[in-house]
């Protein structure tokens, strides 16, 4: 049965080469549009998410604020300023908190090596800062550890761009000494290059990091810039957020519902919103591609109707000789499916080559290009495209096939 259908299909192609090619090209072009739009949409969604995660994952950054409501006999407008002890208070009072770190900060810090001098942001943090803020050290280095904190060591972790400004591209900074605001520090690590489009106080690549105990000792800060806490489970984020206001509100005597009393950067909610926006863009682009492919399917259906009309006498003869209606339906359904699937596979292969070619274009030095030139093919995308192709083939073939099978043998022989 299959070999007969294939021979008839090949014979029809030889007779109507131009028509078959145009139909094949329409399906190929439609598939190419679907795959590329979905791939670029997926790449954009992942890039936006990765840019946010470059600044931190599943964390809350808690800043001191100013009360906007009167509470417990105290007026509004009171300044709330956080201290180191607040971190231990939060970790002890909120069991859902997994990690935490405080952060001191200072702009305009001088970094000097010989005659090379530059200014950058200096931050004092704890060991948990590394996993929460994705500050992974490059090979051969390390981040700030607990012993650095306990002994108030003068050790320095450099952002990769700051390290390049100080040492150049060829010198390994690990173990070298850098003078920070007049005091020598030993470089223990350099930030591994990462993509980051969200930041507090500038990108991590352009900052120096030292132990928070060392920072406090040198500069005498009483209040921290902010606290960072990470819930054990992202789904518990809203509860942890409420508890942050409750615990700190109890200590500093402000209304737990006063959102202005604390400044809070909610990375969990930001990630959800980012993924939702990215998914919306991807769905929109996918729908545009699907409609393009459906237009190609309409073209296939029109061609099949023309084929049925041209071969009405042939169909009548087959029916008169004993062919069953399901055989006639199978013939035209096979032709429509073959054109749709073969054209789709060529479009899919072409799109894959384009995606791999675009992905190979260097874009590290141009952050804007990381959004545009970052298409991503995935199994879900491939399965969606295969499903669309099968659907297009069925829709484009089943109606002409039913019409062909419904031809009356006697009337068809009179047809001219």
How do you describe this structure in short?
The protein has two domains: 2-53 and 272-414, no CATH class; 81-253, no CATH class. Helices cover 55% and strands 15% of the residues.
Describe the structure.
This protein is of the alpha+beta class. The chain folds into 2 domains: 2-53 and 272-414, no CATH class; 81-253, no CATH class. Helix content is 55%, strand content 15%. A 6-stranded mixed barrel has the order 2-3-7-4-6-5. Helix 2 (17-53) packs antiparallel against helix 9 (267-310). The protein is elongated. 38% of the residues are buried. The mean pLDDT is 83.
Please tag this protein with its features.
alpha+beta, 55% helix, 6-stranded mixed β-barrel, 416 residues, 14 helices, 2 domains, single chain
Q: How many E strands?
A: 9
Helix percentage: 55-70%
Question: Quick check: average pLDDT?
Answer: 83
Strand order of the largest sheet: 2-3-7-4-6-5
| Low-confidence region ranges | none
Largest sheet geometry: 6 strands, mixed, barrel
Q: How far from one another are the termini?
A: 29 Å
Question: What's the gyration radius in Å?
Answer: 33 Å
| Number of helices, where a helix is a run of at least 4 consecutive DSSP H or I residues | 14
Strand content: 15-25%
Shape: elongated
Helix-strand makeup class:
alpha+beta
């Amino acid at each position: 049965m299959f070999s007969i259908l294939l021979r008839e299909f090949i014979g029809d192609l030889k007779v109507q080469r131009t028509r078959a090619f145009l139909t094949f090209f329409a399906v190929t072009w439609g598939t190419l549009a679907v795959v590329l739009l979905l791939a670029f949409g997926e790449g954009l969604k992942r890039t936006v998410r990765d840019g946010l995660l470059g600044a931190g994952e599943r964390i809350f950054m808690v800043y001191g604020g100013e009360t906007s409501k009167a509470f417990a006999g105290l007026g509004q407008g009171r300044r709330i300023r956080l201290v180191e002890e607040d971190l231990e208070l939060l970790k002890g009072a909120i069991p859902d908190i997994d990690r935490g770190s405080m952060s001191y900060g200072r702009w305009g810090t001088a970094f000097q090596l010989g005659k090379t001098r530059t200014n950058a942001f200096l931050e004092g943090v704890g060991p948990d800062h590394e996993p929460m803020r994705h500050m992974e050290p490059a090979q051969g280095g390390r981040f700030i550890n607990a012993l650095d904190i306990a002994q108030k060591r003068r050790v320095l972790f450099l952002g990769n761009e700051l390290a390049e400004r100080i040492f150049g591209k060829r010198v390994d900074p690990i173990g070298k000494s850098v003078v920070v605001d007049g005091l020598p520090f030993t470089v223990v690590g350099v930030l591994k290059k990462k993509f980051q489009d969200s930041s507090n106080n500038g990108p991590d690549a352009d900052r120096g990091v030292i132990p928070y105990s060392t920072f406090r000792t040198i500069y005498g800060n009483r209040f921290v810039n902010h606290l960072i806490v990470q819930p054990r489970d992202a789904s518990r984020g809203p509860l942890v957020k409420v508890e942050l206001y409750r615990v700190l509100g109890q200590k500093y005597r402000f209304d737990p519902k006063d959102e202005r009393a604390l400044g809070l950067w909610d990375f969990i909610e930001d990630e959800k919103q980012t993924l939702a926006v990215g998914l919306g863009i991807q769905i929109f682009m996918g729908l545009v591609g699907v409609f393009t492919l459906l237009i190609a399917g309409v073209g296939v259906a029109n061609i099949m109707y023309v084929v049925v009309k041209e071969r009405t006498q042939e169909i009548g003869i087959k029916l008169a000789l004993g062919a069953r209606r399901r055989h006639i339906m199978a013939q035209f359904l096979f032709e429509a499916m073959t054109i749709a699937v073969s054209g789709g596979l060529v479009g899919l292969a072409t799109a894959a080559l384009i995606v791999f070619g675009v992905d190979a274009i260097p874009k590290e030095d141009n952050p804007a290009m990381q959004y545009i030139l970052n298409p991503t093919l995935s199994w879900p995308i491939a399965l969606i495209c295969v499903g669309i192709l099968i659907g297009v083939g069925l829709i484009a073939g089943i109606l002409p096939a039913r019409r062909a099978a419904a031809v009356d043998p006697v009337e068809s022989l009179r047809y001219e």
